[in-house]
C-alpha cells in the first residue's frame, strides 16, 4: 500500500513537473507569464464555445434577414401581379366595350329605321316560370312599357314590362308567359314562340300552333312576324327539334334562342321603328285599285298583350 501511494505521488510529481516545464516553455516562446498562459489555457474552451455561439447567432440573424427580404420581395411580387391582373381586366373591359360599340354602330347602320336606346343590365331575377332582368334606363331615356329589347346583333331579347324614371324591367324570351308571333323564315309557317320550360330543356324556346302538315327542319331560322311591338324579321332562334302537340292536330318546334340570354351585359331598346303598311288608294271607279305600300313610323308605346 505504501509502495502504491509512493508510485501515485511520483506520477503526480512527474506530471506536475512536465506541465510546469511545458508552461515555462510556452511562456518563453509567447513572451507571456506562466499565470497568463494558465488563464489562457483555462479560457480557451470557453472562447471556443463563445465563437461557436457567435457564429450560430450570425447565421441565424443572416437567415432571419434573408427571410424578411424574401417576404418583402414576395409581397412586392404579389402586388405587381395584382396590378397586372387589374390592367388585364381593364383591357378586357375596354376590348368588350369597343366590341359592343362597334356592334352598336353596325346595328344602327343596318336598321336606320330604328330609334334605339342602349342600356346595361344591373340585376337578374328568375324562377321556374319567369325570367327577367333590370336595366339602368327608364322613362328619362324615352323607354316605356311594351318596348322590344334586342342585342347588338339584332336578336330578340324580350319585352319591357315595368319602367321607372331610371330603370326598367325586361321579361326575356325564356319567360313562359311571354308570347311572340314568329315565322319560320325558310318556309313561312307561323306560330307563337315562348319560353318552353321543358324539363332538361329550360334554355330552349317553344314554337306552338304550327300546321300539322308543316315540314320543319333542324337549323331553320325563326324570326318575328311583325307587330306594333316587334319589328318584322328580328331573329328569335333556330329549330333544334319538332313534334306533335298533345292534341295531335298541330306541331311544335323547339328553338335554340339566338340571343345568349345568360351572358348578356348590354341590350338595346327599340323606342320607335318604321314599318310598311298597305293602304288603299281611293278611286271613283268600281275597279279594284292595287294597294301601295307606304312607310309609317311606329312609336312603340302600345299597351296590352304582345304579339
How would you briefly describe this protein structure?
The protein has 307 residues and is an alpha+beta fold.
Query: What sort of overall outline do the alpha carbons produce when their principal axes are compared?
Result: elongated
At CATH's second level, what is the architecture of the largest domain? Beta Barrel
CATH-wise, what's the superfamily of the largest domain?
A: Rod shape-determining protein MreC, domain 2
The CATH class name of the largest domain reads Mainly Beta
Q: From the structure provided, what is the oligomeric state, counting identical versus distinct chains?
A: single chain
Residues in helix, % = 25-40%
Output the strand order for the largest sheet: 1-2-5-4-3-12
SS field, number of helical segments? 2
Structural class: alpha+beta
Describe the secondary-structure layout.
Elements: H1 2-30, H2 34-110, E1 114-126, E2 131-135, E3 148-150, E4 156-163, E5 168-172, E6 180-184, E7 190-195, E8 205-211, E9 221-224, E10 235-244, E11 250-257, E12 266-279, E13 292-299
Antiparallel strand pairs: 1-2, 1-12, 2-5, 3-4, 3-12, 4-5, 6-7, 6-9, 7-8, 8-11, 9-10, 10-11, 12-13
Outline the structure in words.
With 307 residues, the protein is of the alpha+beta class. The protein has two domains: 2-59; 114-279 and 292-299, Thrombin, subunit H, CATH 2.40.10.350. It has two helices and 13 strands; from the N terminus they run H-H-E-E-E-E-E-E-E-E-E-E-E-E-E. Strands 1-2-5-4-3-12 form a six-stranded antiparallel β-barrel. The chain is elongated, with a radius of gyration of 46 Å. The termini are far apart. Mean pLDDT is 78; it is low at 277-296 and 301-306.
Amino acid at each position: 500500500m505504501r509502495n502504491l501511494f509512493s508510485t501515485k505521488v511520483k506520477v503526480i510529481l512527474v506530471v506536475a513537473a512536465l506541465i510546469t516545464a511545458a508552461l515555462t516553455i510556452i511562456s518563453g516562446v509567447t513572451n507571456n507569464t506562466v499565470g497568463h498562459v494558465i488563464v489562457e489555457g483555462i479560457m480557451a474552451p470557453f472562447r471556443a464555445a463563445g465563437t461557436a455561439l457567435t457564429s450560430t447567432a450570425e447565421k441565424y440573424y443572416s437567415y432571419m434577414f434573408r427571410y424578411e427580404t424574401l417576404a418583402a420581395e414576395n409581397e412586392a411580387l404579389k402586388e405587381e401581379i395584382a396590378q397586372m391582373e387589374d390592367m388585364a381586366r381593364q383591357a378586357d373591359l375596354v376590348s368588350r366595350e369597343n366590341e359592343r360599340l362597334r356592334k352598336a354602330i353596325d346595328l344602327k347602320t343596318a336598321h336606320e329605321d330604328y330609334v334605339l336606346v342602349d342600356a346595361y343590365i344591373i340585376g337578374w331575377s328568375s324562377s321556374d316560370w319567369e325570367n327577367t332582368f333590370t336595366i339602368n334606363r327608364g322613362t328619362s331615356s324615352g323607354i316605356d312599357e311594351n318596348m322590344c329589347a334586342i342585342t347588338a346583333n339584332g336578336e330578340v331579347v324580350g319585352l319591357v314590362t315595368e319602367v321607372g324614371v331610371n330603370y326598367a324591367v325586361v321579361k326575356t324570351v325564356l319567360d313562359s308567359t311571354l308570347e311572340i308571333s314568329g315565322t319560320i323564315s325558310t318556309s313561312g309557317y307561323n306560330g307563337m314562340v315562348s319560353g318552353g320550360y321543358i324539363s332538361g330543356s329550360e334554355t330552349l324556346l317553344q314554337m306552338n300552333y304550327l300546321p300539322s302538315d308543316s315540314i320543319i327542319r333542324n337549323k331553320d331560322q325563326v324570326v318575328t312576324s311583325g307587330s306594333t311591338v316587334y319589328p318584322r324579321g328580328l331573329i328569335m332562334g333556330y329549330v333544334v327539334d319538332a313534334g306533335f302537340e298533345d292534341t295531335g292536330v298541330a306541331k311544335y318546334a323547339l328553338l335554340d334562342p339566338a340571343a345568349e340570354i345568360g351572358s348578356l351585359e348590354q341590350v338595346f331598346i327599340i323606342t320607335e321603328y318604321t314599318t310598311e303598311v298597305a293602304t288603299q288608294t281611293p278611286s271613283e271607279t268600281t275597279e279594284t285599285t292595287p294597294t301601295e305600300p307606304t312607310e309609317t313610323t311606329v312609336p312603340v308605346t302600345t299597351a296590352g298583350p304582345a304579339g
